[in-house]
Task: inverse folding
């Protein structure tokens, strides 16, 4: 990761694209938690990576890159909200208000960031199975038909994906209580 | 609820919790390729305008001030200051010395990074029985914005460090912090800007210096 950050800091195009591809989804999750306007969400994403590049010279090698970038994404989101001079989602409709991922405080955003990162790090085949099952609501049989693979493959991919996610997210203490993220964000630094 | 035969080794609660998390549409919101192109274009343009940005990659840049170098001028400076104070005391202008130098105290100059290029700070650090006392004199650093604060760290390297406390600079006054480790063992001093409730160092260093020994 240090090498990638160093190349990112140097403005190497491939590194900038790789950093974006690794973290863009998570950054969008932060922005979408507070904003509904697609243009503002895009602005937050773009500004977050540009600010990160500008500040990369002060990033301490060896540190965790993700929490550092998360802090920038969060601050950028707040700045956009303040600039717009309104609270997030003042124009969203009731359906959007009811969505669990919108119009929420930042209390759970770190949790969402981490979950998004864990999902993005799944192998593509496993991620697609989980997406079709959880977002689209398909059964394993339906997923198998859509992907053109045996149902056993779908089941094994799903099992592996869930184990990976559980392992990746265990540090959030999600499984100990429903407010695990508050525990994480309230922890002592270092 | 999805089919459960994938959850070998996971409890029902764990599966239920994961199902709830994974059903959030935000998780599946695809990144916009146009964003990536815009980011690359902006960074490449700015990088081309500022090729020297790479020079800042050195984790111990030229803002590092060795203790030894400072001690050479600190001692005469303190002597001169002491002489002035004695005169002022004699004149009745000063009736107290709040910050009398302490044996073993070292002075470290911190310089601003790209995040705070106009900032400077002097840290006077002394090992006392209760821990390391750090007195900071900061100049040119903006008060922390609402929702943020500054945090001082003593580090062995970029990975291992101990927080020495926090401050915000929203008013006048001395900054005195304490650390449970010694500058001898943790010679890198950094100050980061933090978001409230941030779980770890943000990595956004605004001031730093390295004590290289006396």
Result:
């Amino acid at each position: 990761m240090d090498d990638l950050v160093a190349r990112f800091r140097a403005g190497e195009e491939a590194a900038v694209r790789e950093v974006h591809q690794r973290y863009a989804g998570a950054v969008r999750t932060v922005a979408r938690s507070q904003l509904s306007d697609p243009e503002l969400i895009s602005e937050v994403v773009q500004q977050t990576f540009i600010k990160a590049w500008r500040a990369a010279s002060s990033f301490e090698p060896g540190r965790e890159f993700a929490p550092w970038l998360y802090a920038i994404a969060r601050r950028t989101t707040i700045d956009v909200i303040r600039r717009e001079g309104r609270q997030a989602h003042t124009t969203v409709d009731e359906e959007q208000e009811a969505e669990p991922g919108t119009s929420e405080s930042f209390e759970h955003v770190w949790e969402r960031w981490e979950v998004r990162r864990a999902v993005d790090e799944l192998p593509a085949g496993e991620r697609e199975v989980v997406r079709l099952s959880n977002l689209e609501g398909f059964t394993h049989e339906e997923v198998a038909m859509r992907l053109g693979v045996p149902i056993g493959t779908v089941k094994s991919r799903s099992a592996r994906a869930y184990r990976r996610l559980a392992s990746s997210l265990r540090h959030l203490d999600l499984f100990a209580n429903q407010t695990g993220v508050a525990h994480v964000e309230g922890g002592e630094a270092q | 609820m999805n089919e459960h035969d994938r959850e070998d080794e996971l409890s029902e609660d764990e599966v239920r919790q994961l199902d709830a998390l994974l059903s959030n549409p935000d998780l599946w919101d695809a990144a916009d390729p146009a964003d990536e192109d815009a980011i690359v274009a902006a960074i490449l343009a700015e990088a081309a305008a500022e090729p020297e940005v790479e020079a800042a990659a050195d984790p111990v840049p030229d803002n590092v001030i060795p203790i030894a170098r400072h001690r050479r001028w600190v001692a005469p400076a303190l002597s001169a200051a002491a002489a002035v104070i004695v005169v002022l005391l004699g004149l009745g202008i000063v009736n107290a010395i709040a910050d009398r130098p302490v044996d073993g105290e070292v002075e470290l100059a911190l310089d601003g990074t790209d995040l705070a290029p106009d900032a400077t700070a002097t840290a006077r650090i002394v090992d006392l029985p209760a821990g390391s006392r750090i007195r900071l004199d900061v100049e040119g650093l903006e008060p922390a914005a609402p929702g943020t604060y500054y945090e001082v760290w003593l580090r062995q390297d970029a990975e291992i460090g101990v927080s020495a406390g926090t401050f915000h600079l929203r008013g006048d006054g001395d900054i005195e912090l304490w650390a449970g480790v010694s500058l001898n063992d943790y010679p890198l001093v950094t100050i980061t800007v933090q978001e409230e409730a941030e779980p770890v160092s943000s990595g956004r260093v605004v001031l730093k210096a390295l004590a290289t020994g006396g």
Notes: The longest helix of chain A spans residues 13-34. Residues 87-103, 177-190 of chain A have pLDDT under 50 and may be disordered. Chain A touches chain B through 75 residues (CB under 8 Å). Residues 1-101 of chain A form a domain with the Rna Polymerase Sigma Factor; Chain: A fold (CATH 1.10.1740.10).
